[in-house]
Fold this sequence. Notes:
The protein has ten helices and no strands. By secondary structure, the chain is mainly alpha-helical. It has two domains: about 20-70; about 75-210, AhpD-like (Up-down Bundle), CATH 1.20.1290.10.
Amino acid sequence: MPRDPLMPPGGWAGPDTPRLDAPPPRERGLLFRSVSRLSRLFGRPELPSVFPLLHRNPRLFWGWLFFASRLMPWGRLAAPARELLILRTAWLCRSRYEWGQHVEIAERVGVVDRDILAVTRGPEAFSNTTLRTLIQACDELHQADCLSDDTWRQLQIRHNDSQLLEIMMLVGHYRMLAGVLISCGLPLEARMEANLQTFHARLRGLIQTD
């Protein structure tokens, strides 16, 4: 049977059933429930499950939240490029939760279906030189934790030192987060699952016309 092009090689990673899920609202604490209303800053009517999941360790959660927010949504990289980097990381790590969440965010910031499809195929699928170099950088960081000299030089053409650091830390952060999400077996929320199914159906039509 041919491999599903909308599933990474080896399939999505993780246990068959959730190991550690987000606690119910009544168990989340008054402070967390108050700030969870900030989900509207992310354009969401409800808080993604990853936040209450990580809040099971409040000592780590608040520092992580501040750091993560410096990367997304308040990073200095252009939002479409940022989302393509996150999606490529999710794909390489085989994190279905991270993929599903950021497909929806990518759609909202204007990433077109064809570019998300290119994420599943790798750097060579991008005709845009800037995006191709970013995806190449993501692949190299995933594979070897080190950018090649050529990729570094190509990144320097269009990014300053601050942005170079942000690119590397963005990929590193979402690799770490993918490992947590996969190990916990966190399932997508119902609304995100429905969006992902609709998106994948649309992408299959695009694949058939290629």
